[in-house]
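Key idea: predict the complex, not the pieces.
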Amino acid sequence: MAPDAAADDLLERMERISFQGRNLATARRIWEKMLGDDCTIFLGMAGALSAGGLRLIVAYLIAHRYIDCLVSTGANLYHDLHETRGRHHYIGSPREDDAALQAESIDRVYDTYAKEDEFCDNDEWIAAFALTLERRPYTTREFLYKLGEYLWQQTGQEGILTAAYRANVPIFCPAIADSSIGMGLSQARPRAASAGLIDVIGDIVESANLVIRHPRTASVVLGGGTPKNFINQASVQAEFYDDRIGGHRYALQIVTDVPHFGGASGSSLEEARSWGKLATDAEQVTVHADATIALPLLVSALAESARDTVAGRKPLAFELNGPTMAVNGRPFPSARFEAR
Amino acid sequence: MAPDAAADDLLERMERISFQGRNLATARRIWEKMLGDDCTIFLGMAGALSAGGLRLIVAYLIAHRYIDCLVSTGANLYHDLHETRGRHHYIGSPREDDAALQAESIDRVYDTYAKEDEFCDNDEWIAAFALTLERRPYTTREFLYKLGEYLWQQTGQEGILTAAYRANVPIFCPAIADSSIGMGLSQARPRAASAGLIDVIGDIVESANLVIRHPRTASVVLGGGTPKNFINQASVQAEFYDDRIGGHRYALQIVTDVPHFGGASGSSLEEARSWGKLATDAEQVTVHADATIALPLLVSALAESARDTVAGRKPLAFELNGPTMAVNGRPFPSARFEAR
Amino acid sequence: MAPDAAADDLLERMERISFQGRNLATARRIWEKMLGDDCTIFLGMAGALSAGGLRLIVAYLIAHRYIDCLVSTGANLYHDLHETRGRHHYIGSPREDDAALQAESIDRVYDTYAKEDEFCDNDEWIAAFALTLERRPYTTREFLYKLGEYLWQQTGQEGILTAAYRANVPIFCPAIADSSIGMGLSQARPRAASAGLIDVIGDIVESANLVIRHPRTASVVLGGGTPKNFINQASVQAEFYDDRIGGHRYALQIVTDVPHFGGASGSSLEEARSWGKLATDAEQVTVHADATIALPLLVSALAESARDTVAGRKPLAFELNGPTMAVNGRPFPSARFEAR
Amino acid sequence: MAPDAAADDLLERMERISFQGRNLATARRIWEKMLGDDCTIFLGMAGALSAGGLRLIVAYLIAHRYIDCLVSTGANLYHDLHETRGRHHYIGSPREDDAALQAESIDRVYDTYAKEDEFCDNDEWIAAFALTLERRPYTTREFLYKLGEYLWQQTGQEGILTAAYRANVPIFCPAIADSSIGMGLSQARPRAASAGLIDVIGDIVESANLVIRHPRTASVVLGGGTPKNFINQASVQAEFYDDRIGGHRYALQIVTDVPHFGGASGSSLEEARSWGKLATDAEQVTVHADATIALPLLVSALAESARDTVAGRKPLAFELNGPTMAVNGRPFPSARFEAR
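Result:
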């Protein structure tokens, strides 16, 4: 026991204890290895992490290239946009009278509040932005890059979308239709029937091509959901077109869900092996913890111990500004999987 | 204690006990009320319920109009298609060696196995089907109707997709890109660059119009995930265009996730009230249970006690075969929210 | 899907599905095998099952000798005594104002209420009973037999304690000091300094001797806690004195806790093997479910399908009325482990 | 995001986020208030925390009087004794073949191993110690003080039992019969029929008297189980004899269990209010987290921010060496509750 130990030291000591403490300590070491081993690192992000106050940690991971590609739920990007636009989430209580909150137009996310009026304003802002785009399908990768760009121009503020724009880190949002970003997009339709057309199937092609182009991949998953599966799916789809892929080399997940009900969110990384989502000899760890506790500690320790590794890292350079993305100067083929 | 009690009797007795047993008993009564109260009943379905063996229960609910609209993950529809096409899921073990399974091309979902070759065959089948469609955006509602039609024509077998086709029950799949149906669609692209274009934003417009057209709604949610939020989002989006909506009148959810980590899957129905997703005076219940235990018991009891109510029900009649859906003979407006 | 299926039929169908539904179906088959295989069947009972409305199911299991020995928390026995004495638990809400409940002297167990005055009356009743006993240590086995006897004489009502008394089924309560039965006993002390002396270490000797006397054992655990460990400890302690024991031949547990936090309540039955608590080839299953849903369905189906097996069963005959218990007419040695 | 932030700083930032991160930050502030407010602070400890590597943190809390009374499961004290005696717990895997472990006499606690031979040696050591005691009932409080004393004399090593002995901090172990300490005690019986007599009902009297003597109390609970309830029971029992008690003034619990299955381990602190276990206006927080992650961070931050408060604290002085304990020089009455 050391009073006021630093994150690095805390996690180092936790390598010698048990249960989820040890797993969290192991997660740091596995992430270090990802960074040192020429991997494309995918970060999946589900659960109310942005509303919950972790968006600047994710922005940090993007800006400093602790990760190379973000896959997120729409809600996390929306709540990020909300704060980047200068709005707030408020400290509330999980036991408030919800009918009273509704009467005051306050939306509750467990112990956190937001103002419905500000959400409506965001939706309109997104609709207006969508109307500035061309009348053609956009993958979420292209759309979110443009959205990040516009947001940066308008606000100059740090956040997930703006960090990804500035660092040229691609974001995929496979379930964008199930979010307020989707709602904003839908509100463009009455004004232009062909506005807000999002090509989520195109995202599948691009994400698989990302793996085919650089088959050494790693997966960091926070909270399961669609991002977890989408990251694994990219690996499986790539394998379908190129049997040298072989699954992620490293994987870590911080989840609160459990395997025994059969859902994908809680599924084990062992199970992922049977599908070839994970290499047979991949180093992997599951941490059963709320990310609001685990992530600040993990990233703070990692930022210390992996400082040099990150400084020496030569991550893939992406070009994201157009229908066809490019990696290290070479564009992807249009609308098809890249053969090697 | 009665040996071999029937489902109806078991649940009736469970009304007088506590905890999740009582909640399950209450769920039956609330569903009965939905059926007797001229509501549009949405069913949300996440988690590996089709692979887990519950697809024919869901097909029964559709065919007999215990529900009016299904919102599902792609995986549940894909695993349904898999079995409707005559393939199987196999009884396995959660403790098998996953590297060995991979070597034999067996994919594991907790304690259940499937053959990867058969999955690859499904993907190709979906890609081939996608190529028969017009080169224009399809909402998932229209696409899945066509898919159900084709599947029925090819197989004549019962299942979720075929039951929904035959009963004209709409299916939305907001996260279709995060599933093997999406992967199948993506495999059409190399053969036709504009094939497999899915308009998930159009789904948002249609689902909100569904609520605007008939504002008395009810929500039955299995397992959280994107379906849970999409059903609530439809209500919120409808409210944005028509302030007489007022949220679901009844809601029940069977979930294994918990509220205190802040994610939407586990969020309480009280919280849903603050957002106006649920009417302030809505009757609601959350059952914390695995649907593989709770659903067979619940539906078996409901099919007994609600038999007459269902027989006397006059559910909405949908027309789903085209870009614009119609309710009771009146088509939705094209690409905009319906004003009342 | 069959409307109003009976429990036996429901569980039979659930053998062919997945996840916890399949596990519950397997639990029925394993319990059948225990009953047919000359085992001493231990039932462990933790969690608020009596307050939650399951006490008459447990009484049924005792009376019909589906089990041979009960290990319980004190609370379950206390809440059983409360109802056997004609008091009630009330249907309440988990979201009531607890300060208001306190002001009205209502004690809450999640969604269930009880009157504090009636609890205080129970405590005094137990204290008065304790004063009628001899001034010597009693194992919980002997004490609870006497308590059941007195309760039956006073009330003539069915319940766990009275059923165990009438069927001569031993009850152990290793954590009796952590319950209102313990509180009641402590209230005898001011009136007689040596009253209420409970020899919980003697329970360890007796429970191990139970296993030594008849080494074929089986374990049914509801909810983990001290009963789960105490049942396993009996097996391990017996093994220490007689290396032919070999652990339980069958084991099933219905728990809501999970293994990955390291606690005994959620620990897996695989882990139990490493300790020798379970035979290496034991048939076992864990059902992750709330007992208020799982137990009524399970016992109702079992009472149907195991009817003949139970009728033909020749369970151990216990004599429990004294400091030394006897099995099939042969008393245990006093204060020592029986050598074989 | 600050690389390598210290614990104090991490938790301070987490006060402004959401969910369990915020709750953990709040837990630190509530513990600070306990320390500054002349409270008797009870610590409850369940789950495999000693085997899991947290025993020296608990020893630190005892030695520096961050707490005043420990209530523990027997297993945590036993695994503490095991390490204090120079034995070890080993880093293992949760997926090892348990039959193979059994064959090598290795006992598994999730991902942690111990040698069965060493456990057997501990049991004998405890039995031998028990035979050195007088032939009369010992409360666990007295027995564990003597055990800590003997352990300190034999080993001179730091640990929970030895720290409590040296700091005169009482330990209660209400479920001692459900642990290997109990097994060790039972092994004294064959050698002396009246050895190992533990008076757990006497513990109830003493723990209530502790509250009556100094009614300002606070509760810190790790992991639920019997310690959680025993601490609350002391408050309720004290109230029965002295209606000025009023429940704990502060309460924090770090648990992984949930309220909605009705068990005491997961029960909410709101519910505790209805019983009067908690003062109506008590400050309280529940942290849903594995203690192996939460406790090192929490205690490290607390040891920094509460340094001065702890230095200025004047905790109760206990005398524990005898059948009757004393507080600040005044002994408790023998075998009865103290009237004020």
